[in-house]
């Protein structure tokens, strides 16, 4: 282990600046915020998945001595706030007025003196429901007799949300028609939940005198939240301040605005006091953004000698009761279009149909890079199925079909331009670390003895850093990010960024970017983030976009400051700026390195009485908005080794090798940490995580007793490798790493387990690979993992 | 986070006082020891007792003793203490096996042996392990002490033979020459059992003279597989016999489907794990750790 | 009900409802917000503190149960300005990202090292298996605790540095 005590100027391993507070227990998370006179909110939720609300009686709750207000949908309707826009131009009930549409939907909000009393008062609210049949199975949502969920919407006559497609259907069908081999498979990427350990919550404080609303909130996108609050509530945007303090993990769960946040704001307006609302774990799992829930039918076409020709897939996408998915407007299926993966194909086509069901809304969250996770899973399972059919080694088949370095920038069949890559090198490295040939020999020996050992390979291409404004917006807000940098007179600096950390270490890595560009120590750069009053506008941290977008903004703003410093230095040295050369931290006269000024000297001079050229302002600061020209495309090769007990179905992941290429690495220690976490995420999804529903729409994953997260025991010691292929269009050649491992690892785990089960004639098992699911697959009677097991 | 509804809280300073409090509050009172079953249910408001009687102060219930030929485990002994006890490890590997897979280390630091049994959760591990061992439970009530055979203790899910004002004080297991093991399949470490099986074998002259088979999470009546036990008695402890005992055990249980698995899988596991536990116990009887 | 709990060596007396959870007593009554909560079902372990020297999940202990007892939290881990080796290890090995599970992880790590000065990777994984981390994949948590063991972290309380097992087999409080 390389520890992180080195203190580089610029990129390299260094200990995180934020750790000092966290290891002392001095972080400030939303539930740590305590304001004078603060009240506490609690939400009454629907016990039913689909029901008409007949009546709500709040009188007993209102009579509770500690209750200050009870808010219902009717109260909100009076304020025009009963419904709010979702991030996908749908509407979502803040508090239900007409019907409840999923179990756990928000029905009433109680404000009380303390959290215990607020919880007690929920018991005193009497709601009469008229139950309706629920739509649980996405595959049945468009049946003619399916109950209509969104009867609140004019012109909505069924549960259809959208159809979206990419690629050339006709050409793809022709390729399939002519191919030697076609393999098809139904597969489910079940509904999962990001489950950050800190649940979602808000402290809302409306100052009645100044009219200023301050909201401490678990948000990955404080600026977007501010704009949406302004649009929804009609509060002038400059009178809203969103503070995203320390966040206990996000993983996409904290992108959207949840009804509880709006209720807390209304509660503060109504009572004139600050109101805190923090959801409990069941509320988090049952009502906030889920992820995946893609029912896919994939096909792959190839020649007999293993040249992959085409891919096609049809998807039924379960978006729950409200289409609240957070993704760029023009991409209702996110970036699923990159399902062509890392291979050179002749044709590809996908068609996605989004449907409403009586389940929690959301649709994209959880470290998935806007559905790249589903896309990678699809293609990597299909390639393994093809290898199985052809009797070819799956690593060998991939090696034969991977894009070659000289093909970049590569234009895919579905319209993406991959920026850079050396795919075979990454796969070779993974195979070397794993000792792939030895593993295959060991497997053959074990199979002789009837033991089940599997080796799973996956190769992924990520698509991150959304994105070019021309193509990408959320609710009309372009996905560019700002940065502001000011160097103080003594050479210390403050950087203000629009993205927000949920644990990624922005206070360290963004300081390192400035450090790299200006040559001042990272310790001397304060990074301000997560407060809309103190930072420039930007769309926030998700989709692995911090480094690709905001990191680029930071590099660019530092370069602007460097250019200003050049002018100051030229005035100090009384030479033309054109005669100066940059060395890290210092401008000097070209050809005369002794004649120079370092950043500390320049900073002081910039604030001094030094005479500057006409039109050059003093001081040393700059602002920048970075509009990315393209996405960045990190990639990697993963190999998983798993043992399966055939008599119990128990899977043990023994080894996991991950070779990631995220371009240049700002802080390799942090990059590796991101990979470790993503691998555990992927392993969890592959083996145990699922939010299933019974036929009445009851959520069967509503607590950590039922929704299982991996522990230290299930996780192997991750074995990492790296290659570095810089992004050609990114200022520092970085590509982003936040979600790569989550995107790439589930397929490796599933491929390993299916490989282990191969002697039993198993070709596919849907996630999660619980002991029961594995055993039943081995029996030839697979389980439907998204529904109640009967 | 979730919080319990209000209740009266009483701290018992002695066993007698605990029983007095139980008598006074009646059936709406609950005893709290480690609280790791009860408090989560109270937070989720699945349980709303009017009074809690805290027996954490009753040090006399927190002993692991060898009393004559018996191991006596106080009801307030924490899981971690049972796991760490050398005498338990030496004579009752089934308990050590079970404790290693009960919840997680932190829960085991707080949760108690007596609490686990009294909760009578149909997926509880110690209920199966002690049932396989044919433990005797000592209860104390207003009328004094009585003993209850563990196989008469569990009346059904969450239901025991304890009377309202009665308190479990001790679990007694005879120390004799036997071998034992416990095998569990769980979806993830710390989860409740999908299925688990415990086996106790007394072997003399090359044949099984007594057998105990405990099963949890499969609806086995009183957590045991009596038919399999009957079958084992008088037979040679070999692989075929263990396989047949497993088959019988799997037929004796009445699993229900849930997200841990369908009925056929659980039934299969009941047999498989019974066989494995028997195999391990027999190996241990031969002095082999398995 | 009036209770007195010794928290990080300091006696704290408060009037509380019997139903107040220890985690809320620490956070809301004493302002010790380093101890977090993350679930309602005793699964996640981010609320881990010591009760009388043993790590427990403070969301599943009533504050009244701690009356007259000793509680240690993350805020008491450092020795003045000097971080405990466990804290140093977490910084040195990037053992935390969002920091939410970290206090609980470190409390268990401290306890483990007090009882096993040289734990194996497997020992460490077992010790923290009741505590979830969503960020690190546990890799660097394991390394952090090993780092602490290798940097004098195993010897803080020598008088309790024994196996957590009873000394005698008869008539002992196990």
UniProtKB/TrEMBL annotation, chain A:
<dbReference type="InterPro" id="IPR012780">
    <property type="entry name" value="CO_Mo_DH_lsu"/>
</dbReference>
<dbReference type="Pfam" id="PF01315">
    <property type="entry name" value="Ald_Xan_dh_C"/>
</dbReference>
<keyword id="KW-0560">Oxidoreductase</keyword>
<dbReference type="InterPro" id="IPR036856">
    <property type="entry name" value="Ald_Oxase/Xan_DH_a/b_sf"/>
</dbReference>
<keyword id="KW-0500">Molybdenum</keyword>
<dbReference type="InterPro" id="IPR000674">
    <property type="entry name" value="Ald_Oxase/Xan_DH_a/b"/>
</dbReference>
<dbReference type="GO" id="GO:0043885">
    <property type="term" value="F:anaerobic carbon-monoxide dehydrogenase activity"/>
</dbReference>
<dbReference type="Pfam" id="PF20256">
    <property type="entry name" value="MoCoBD_2"/>
</dbReference>
<protein>
    <submittedName>
        <fullName>Carbon-monoxide dehydrogenase large subunit</fullName>
        <ecNumber>1.2.7.4</ecNumber>
    </submittedName>
</protein>
<dbReference type="Pfam" id="PF02738">
    <property type="entry name" value="MoCoBD_1"/>
</dbReference>
<dbReference type="InterPro" id="IPR046867">
    <property type="entry name" value="AldOxase/xan_DH_MoCoBD2"/>
</dbReference>
<dbReference type="InterPro" id="IPR037165">
    <property type="entry name" value="AldOxase/xan_DH_Mopterin-bd_sf"/>
</dbReference>
<dbReference type="InterPro" id="IPR008274">
    <property type="entry name" value="AldOxase/xan_DH_MoCoBD1"/>
</dbReference>
<feature type="domain" description="Aldehyde oxidase/xanthine dehydrogenase a/b hammerhead">
    <location>
        <begin position="24"/>
        <end position="133"/>
    </location>
</feature>
<dbReference type="InterPro" id="IPR016208">
    <property type="entry name" value="Ald_Oxase/xanthine_DH-like"/>
</dbReference>
From TrEMBL, chain B:
<keyword id="KW-0274">FAD</keyword>
<keyword id="KW-0285">Flavoprotein</keyword>
<dbReference type="InterPro" id="IPR036683">
    <property type="entry name" value="CO_DH_flav_C_dom_sf"/>
</dbReference>
<feature type="domain" description="FAD-binding PCMH-type">
    <location>
        <begin position="2"/>
        <end position="178"/>
    </location>
</feature>
<dbReference type="InterPro" id="IPR016167">
    <property type="entry name" value="FAD-bd_PCMH_sub1"/>
</dbReference>
<dbReference type="InterPro" id="IPR051312">
    <property type="entry name" value="Diverse_Substr_Oxidored"/>
</dbReference>
<dbReference type="Pfam" id="PF00941">
    <property type="entry name" value="FAD_binding_5"/>
</dbReference>
<dbReference type="Pfam" id="PF03450">
    <property type="entry name" value="CO_deh_flav_C"/>
</dbReference>
<dbReference type="InterPro" id="IPR016169">
    <property type="entry name" value="FAD-bd_PCMH_sub2"/>
</dbReference>
<dbReference type="InterPro" id="IPR005107">
    <property type="entry name" value="CO_DH_flav_C"/>
</dbReference>
<dbReference type="InterPro" id="IPR016166">
    <property type="entry name" value="FAD-bd_PCMH"/>
</dbReference>
<protein>
    <submittedName>
        <fullName>Xanthine dehydrogenase family protein subunit M</fullName>
    </submittedName>
</protein>
<keyword id="KW-0560">Oxidoreductase</keyword>
<dbReference type="InterPro" id="IPR036318">
    <property type="entry name" value="FAD-bd_PCMH-like_sf"/>
</dbReference>
<dbReference type="InterPro" id="IPR002346">
    <property type="entry name" value="Mopterin_DH_FAD-bd"/>
</dbReference>
From TrEMBL, chain C:
<feature type="domain" description="2Fe-2S ferredoxin-type">
    <location>
        <begin position="1"/>
        <end position="77"/>
    </location>
</feature>
<dbReference type="InterPro" id="IPR036884">
    <property type="entry name" value="2Fe-2S-bd_dom_sf"/>
</dbReference>
<keyword id="KW-0001">2Fe-2S</keyword>
<keyword id="KW-0408">Iron</keyword>
<dbReference type="Pfam" id="PF01799">
    <property type="entry name" value="Fer2_2"/>
</dbReference>
<dbReference type="InterPro" id="IPR051452">
    <property type="entry name" value="Diverse_Oxidoreductases"/>
</dbReference>
<keyword id="KW-0479">Metal-binding</keyword>
<dbReference type="InterPro" id="IPR002888">
    <property type="entry name" value="2Fe-2S-bd"/>
</dbReference>
<keyword id="KW-0411">Iron-sulfur</keyword>
<feature type="compositionally biased region" description="Low complexity">
    <location>
        <begin position="156"/>
        <end position="165"/>
    </location>
</feature>
<keyword id="KW-0560">Oxidoreductase</keyword>
<dbReference type="InterPro" id="IPR036010">
    <property type="entry name" value="2Fe-2S_ferredoxin-like_sf"/>
</dbReference>
<protein>
    <submittedName>
        <fullName>(2Fe-2S)-binding protein</fullName>
    </submittedName>
</protein>
<dbReference type="InterPro" id="IPR001041">
    <property type="entry name" value="2Fe-2S_ferredoxin-type"/>
</dbReference>
<dbReference type="Pfam" id="PF00111">
    <property type="entry name" value="Fer2"/>
</dbReference>
């Amino acid at each position: 282990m390389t520890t992180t005590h080195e203190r580089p100027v610029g990129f390299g391993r260094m200990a995180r600046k934020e750790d000092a507070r966290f290891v002392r227990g001095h972080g400030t998370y939303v539930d740590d915020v305590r304001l004078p006179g603060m009240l506490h909110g609690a939400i009454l939720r629907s016990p039913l998945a689909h029901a008409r609300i007949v009546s709500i009686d709040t009188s007993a709750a209102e009579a509770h001595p500690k209750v200050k207000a009870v808010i219902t949908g009717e109260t909100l309707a009076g304020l025009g706030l009963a419904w709010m826009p979702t991030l996908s131009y749908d509407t979502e009930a803040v508090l239900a007025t007409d019907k409840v549409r999923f179990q756990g939907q928000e029905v009433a909000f109680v404000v009380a003196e303390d959290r215990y009393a607020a919880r007690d008062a929920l018991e005193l609210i009497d709601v009469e429901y008229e139950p309706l049949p629920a739509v649980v199975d996405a595959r049945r949502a468009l049946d003619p007799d399916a109950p209509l969920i969104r009867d609140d919407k004019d012109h909505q006559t069924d549960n259809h949300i959208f159809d979206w497609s990419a690629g050339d259907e006709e050409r793809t069908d022709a390729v399939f028609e002519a191919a030697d081999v076609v393999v098809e498979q139904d597969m489910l990427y079940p509904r999962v939940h990001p489950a950050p350990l800190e649940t979602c919550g808000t402290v809302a404080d409306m100052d009645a005198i100044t009219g200023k609303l301050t909201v401490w909130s678990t948000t990955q996108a404080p600026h977007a939240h501010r704009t949406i609050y302004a649009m929804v509530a009609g509060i002038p945007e400059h009178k809203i301040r969103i503070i995203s303090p320390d966040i206990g993990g996000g993983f996409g769960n904290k992108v959207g605005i949840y009804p509880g946040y709006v209720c807390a704001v209304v509660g503060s307006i109504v009572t004139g006091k600050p109101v805190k609302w923090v959801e409990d774990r069941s509320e988090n799992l049952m009502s906030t953004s889920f992820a995946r829930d893609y029912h896919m039918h994939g096909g792959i076409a190839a020649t007999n000698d293993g040249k992959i020709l085409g891919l096609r897939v049809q998807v039924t996408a379960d978006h729950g009761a409200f289409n609240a998915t957070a993704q760029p407007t023009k991409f209702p299926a996110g970036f699923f279009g990159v399902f062509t993966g890392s291979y050179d194909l002749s044709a590809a086509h996908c068609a996605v149909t989004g449907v409403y069901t009586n389940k929690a809304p959301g649709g994209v969250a959880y470290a998935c890079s806007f559905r790249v996770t589903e896309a990678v899973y699809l293609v990597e399972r299909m390639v393994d199925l093809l290898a199985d059919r052809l009797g070819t080694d799956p690593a060998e088949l991939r090696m034969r079909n991977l894009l070659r370095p000289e093909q970049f920038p590569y234009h895919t069949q579905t319209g993406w331009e991959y920026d850079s890559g050396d795919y075979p090198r990454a796969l070779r490295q993974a195979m070397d670390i794993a000792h792939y040939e030895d593993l295959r020999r060991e497997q053959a020996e074990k199979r002789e003895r009837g033991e089940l050992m599997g080796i799973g390979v996956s190769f992924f291409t990520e698509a991150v850093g959304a994105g070019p404004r021309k193509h990408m917006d959320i609710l009309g807000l372009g996905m560019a990010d700002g940065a502001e940098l000011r160097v103080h007179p003594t050479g210390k600096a403050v950087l203000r960024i629009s993205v927000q950390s949920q644990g990624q270490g922005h206070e360290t890595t963004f300081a390192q970017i400035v450090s790299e560009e200006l040559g001042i120590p990272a310790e001397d750069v304060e990074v301000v983030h997560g407060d809309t009053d103190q930072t420039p506008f930007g769309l926030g941290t998700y989709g692995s976009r911090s480094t690709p977008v905001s990191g680029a903004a930071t590099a660019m703003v530092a370069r602007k400051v460097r250019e200003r410093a050049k002018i100051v230095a030229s005035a100090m040295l009384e030479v033309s700026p054109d005669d100066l050369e940059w060395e890290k931290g210092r401008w000097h006269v070209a050809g005369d390195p002794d004649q120079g000024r370092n950043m500390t000297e320049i900073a002081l001079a910039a604030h001094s009485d030094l005479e500057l050229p006409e039109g050059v302002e003093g001081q040393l600061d700059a602002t920048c908005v970075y509009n990315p020209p393209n996405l960045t495309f990190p990639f990697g090769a993963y190999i998983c080794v798993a043992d399966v007990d055939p008599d119990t179905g128990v899977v043990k992941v023994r080894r996991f090798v991950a070779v990631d290429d995220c371009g240049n690495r700002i802080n390799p220690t942090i990059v590796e940490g991101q990979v470790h976490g993503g691998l555990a995420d992927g392993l969890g999804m592959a083996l145990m995580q699922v939010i299933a529903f019974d036929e009445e729409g009851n959520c069967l994953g509503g607590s950590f007793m039922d929704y299982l997260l991996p522990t230290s025991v299930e996780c192997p010691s991750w074995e990492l490798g790296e290659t570095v292929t810089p992004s050609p269009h990114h200022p520092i050649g970085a590509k982003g790493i936040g979600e790569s491992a989550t995107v790439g690892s589930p397929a490796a785990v599933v491929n390993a387990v299916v490989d282990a089960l191969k002697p039993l004639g198993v070709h596919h098992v849907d996630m999660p690979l619980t002991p029961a699911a594995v055993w039943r697959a081995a029996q030839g009677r697979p389980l439907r993992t998204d529904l109640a097991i009967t | 986070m979730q919080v319990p509804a209000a209740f009266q809280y009483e701290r018992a300073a002695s066993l007698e006082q605990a029983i007095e409090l139980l008598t006074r509050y009646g059936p709406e009172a609950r005893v709290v020891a480690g609280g790791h079953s009860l408090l989560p249910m109270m937070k989720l408001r699945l349980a709303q007792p009017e009074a809690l009687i805290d027996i954490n102060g009753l040090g006399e219930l927190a002993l692991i003793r060898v009393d004559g030929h018996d191991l006596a485990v106080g009801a307030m002994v924490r899981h971690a203490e049972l796991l760490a006890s050398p005498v338990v490890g030496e004579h009752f590997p089934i308990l050590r096996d079970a404790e290693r897979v009960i919840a997680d280390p932190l829960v085991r630091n707080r949760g108690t042996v007596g609490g686990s049994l009294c909760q009578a959760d149909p997926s509880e591990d110690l209920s199966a392990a002690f049932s396989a061992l044919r433990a005797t439970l000592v209860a104390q009530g207003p009328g004094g002490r009585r003993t209850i055979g563990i196989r008469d203790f569990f009346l059904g899910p969450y239901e025991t033979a304890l009377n309202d004002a009665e308190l479990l004080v001790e679990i007694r297991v005879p120390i004799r020459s036997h071998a034992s093991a416990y095998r569990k399949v769980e979806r993830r470490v710390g989860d409740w059992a999908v299925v688990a099986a415990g086996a106790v074998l007394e072997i003399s002259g090359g044949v099984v003279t007594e057998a105990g088979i405990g099963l949890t999470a499969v609806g086995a009546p009183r957590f045991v597989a009596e038919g399999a036990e009957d079958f084992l008695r008088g037979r040679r402890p070999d692989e075929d016999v263990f396989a047949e005992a497993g088959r019988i055990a799997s037929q004796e249980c009445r699993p229900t489907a849930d997200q841990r698995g369908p009925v056929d899988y659980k039934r299969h596991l009941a047999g498989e794990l019974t066989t494995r536990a028997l195999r391990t116990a027999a190996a241990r009887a031969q002095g082999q750790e398995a | 009900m009036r209770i007195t709990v010794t928290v990080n060596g300091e006696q704290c007396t408060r009037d509380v409802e019997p139903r107040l959870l220890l985690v809320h007593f620490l956070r809301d009554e004493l302002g010790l917000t380093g101890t977090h909560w993350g679930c309602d079902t005793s699964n996640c372990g981010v609320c881990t503190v010591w009760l009388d020297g043993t790590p427990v999940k403070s969301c599943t202990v009533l504050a009244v149960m701690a009356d007259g007892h000793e509680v240690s939290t993350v805020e008491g881990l450092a020795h003045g300005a000097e971080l405990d080796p466990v804290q140093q290890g977490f910084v040195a090995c990037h053992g935390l990202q969002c920091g939410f599970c970290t206090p609980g992880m470190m409390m268990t790590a401290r306890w483990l090292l007090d009882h096993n000065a040289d734990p194996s990777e497997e020992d460490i994984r077992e010790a923290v298996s009741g505590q979830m981390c969503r960020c690190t994949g546990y890799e660097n948590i394991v390394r952090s605790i090993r780092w602490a063991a290798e940097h004098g972290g195993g010897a803080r309380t020598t008088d309790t540095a024994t196996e957590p097992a009873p000394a005698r087999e008869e008539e002992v409080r196990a």
